């Protein structure tokens, strides 16, 4: 039983502010989700769908752009070698 209770205690090396937030983490997340839901319920459905669509398209696009630049960087390093001056 003590083992189960200890799992809910924050580690001793954490700062005081981390320990205080850890205790209320679940309630903070529920409160934030409730606030978000209340805001979305007061918004027009087409606007909400547009925002979701924009986020759904922007995240993969950003990922592809970053991967493309990393690939180009890797090609440049492999082709010319790494020259640090």
UniProtKB/TrEMBL annotation:
Keyword annotations from UniProtKB, A to Z: Membrane, Transmembrane, Transmembrane helix
Source species taxonomy: Eukaryota, Viridiplantae, Streptophyta, Embryophyta, Tracheophyta
UniProt source species: Solanum verrucosum
Designated name of the protein: Uncharacterized protein
Keyword Transmembrane helix: yes
Transmembrane segments: 47-71
């Amino acid at each position: 039983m003590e083992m189960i209770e200890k799992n809910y205690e924050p580690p001793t090396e954490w700062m005081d502010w981390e320990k205080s937030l850890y205790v209320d983490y679940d309630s903070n997340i529920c409160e934030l989700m409730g606030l978000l839901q209340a805001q979305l319920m007061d918004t027009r459905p087409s606007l909400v769908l547009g925002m979701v669509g924009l986020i759904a398209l922007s995240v993969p696009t950003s990922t592809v752009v970053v991967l493309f630049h990393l690939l180009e960087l890797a090609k440049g390093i492999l082709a010319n070698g790494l020259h640090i001056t």
